[in-house]
Hints:
The chain is an alpha+beta fold and 158 residues long. The protein has a single domain (2-157), classed as 3-Layer(aba) Sandwich (Aminopeptidase), CATH 3.40.630. Helices cover 31% and strands 39% of the residues. Strands 1-2-3-4-5-7-6 form a seven-stranded mixed sheet, with helices on both faces. Helix 1 crosses helix 2 (32-42). Keywords: Acyltransferase, Transferase.
Amino acid sequence: MVTTRLAESRDHDDAVAVWRAANIARGRPPEAARVDRVRAKLVEPDAVVIVAVASGRVRGMLLAEPGRDGDGQGPKVAGLCHISMVFVHPGRQGNGIGRLLLERLRAHVTAQGGTRLQVWTGSGNDRARRLYRRAGFAPSGRVAFLSGRPIEQFVLEL
């Protein structure tokens, strides 16, 4: 059985380990500086970190933060929550953990008075695109480039 909950500080190392393992599995092993940036993001005051736990071990993680105007560079936008990352341990992918993480975030954001979720994902990341569509997200039509790769925005009105 998998449960989800808001992460506690003791979960952060395990959340980073899941993120790291998933990136290694997709052929993108993160450099030490990137690992440090992710660790720093998890402890930011506005960060919402959710973990999925099975058999006492963190198997999935989600990081969200307040949405900002100007593609993340401007002031916070009231009611907007930006999903920065959703990762599931490679050995547990395809078992609904990503959906559970998104459901927990949706409930949390709604309870806080949030009105919209947004996420950017690689245009070629079919697994993530399916996950967001199944969770009720729709493409906004916005496409950008990150590290030379096209990314696509998905949104969900709450």
